Amino acid sequence: MISQATGEALHLLFTGDRALWEIILISLTVSLRALLLCLPVGIALAFLLSYLVFPGRRLIVMVFQTLMSIPAVVVGLTVYLMLARHGPFGDLKLLFTQSAMVIGQVLLSFPIIVALGYSAFQAAGRRGWETARTLGASRSRAFFTLLHEVRFGLFVAFAAAFGRIISEVGVSMMVGGNILGYTRNIPTAIALESSKGEFAQGIALGIVLMAIALIMNILLTVFQGREPVVV
């Protein structure tokens, strides 16, 4: 049965099955939208937490580090209650839409970007920033110079956040509703198809997730630049 389901899964992937690739496209679109919203603000906040000294800074850092491991179902429940008809944002009618999924994934990925970005800036120390400023660079140019210096650490933050949200089920199921052709993404489709005993599509989508993980690891190796990458 496993070999037959795997063969059917490969057939779905390589014959361009419309339903399968629609699910993949929805999953990638929603997750990338969430990350594009998170990255600029998250990196800027991580920088400020690393280089500004103010009361409560350590507490803020600790809160973000704690939120990195918050269960997805808790975030999903929170967003659901906020967007439900009788919730504070119910009039926006965002529940069971891709926008609701983006909101949930933003809440999941933002703490990861801030916490790991903070670690990357801390590892670099203040030397790069101070050197750039001493040489006459403007604040903005010094900031982008520092970003280049810590690019590997920031890419690790991006990869960790992307890996967290591309494979989560709780938020997507609770606030997206698993609507075919609209909010059904890779993890919710795997859960649904497996519960019905239809394993071919689930295996195909699992292969896609593994391929994404492999691509992210190859990119990490390339960014790190320590070993040659053989593809």
Structure description:
The protein is mostly helical and 231 residues long. It has one domain: MetI-like (MetI-like fold). It is 76% helix and 0% strand. The chain has eleven helices and no strands. It has helices at 2-14, 18-51, 57-67, 72-83, 98-124, 127-134, 139-149, 151-166, 170-176, 186-195, 199-224. Helix 3 crosses helix 5 and helix 10 runs antiparallel to helix 11. The radius of gyration is 20 Å and the shape is globular. Mean pLDDT is 90; it is low at 227-231.
- Poorly predicted ranges (pLDDT <50, ≥5 residues)? 227-231
SS strand fraction:
under 5%
Question: CATH superfamily, called what?
Answer: MetI-like
Content-based structural category: mainly alpha
Computed Rg: 20 Å
Cα(first) to Cα(last) distance is 31 Å
Oligomer: single chain
**Principal-axis shape:** globular
What is the H/E string?
HHHHHHHHHHH
In which range does the helix fraction lie? over 70%
Question: Do you know the CATH topology?
Answer: MetI-like fold
Per CATH, which architecture?
Orthogonal Bundle
Number of helices: 11
Q: Please outline the major beta sheet.
A: none
Average predicted confidence as pLDDT: 90
Number of strands: 0
Task: Summarize the model shown.
The chain is mainly α and 231 residues long.
Task: Using brief descriptors, characterize the structure shown.
globular; MetI-like fold; disordered C terminus; 231 residues; 76% helix
Write the topology of this structure:
Layout (H helix, E strand, L loop, with lengths): L1 H13 L3 H34 L5 H11 L4 H12 L14 H27 L2 H8 L4 H11 L1 H16 L3 H7 L9 H10 L3 H26 L7
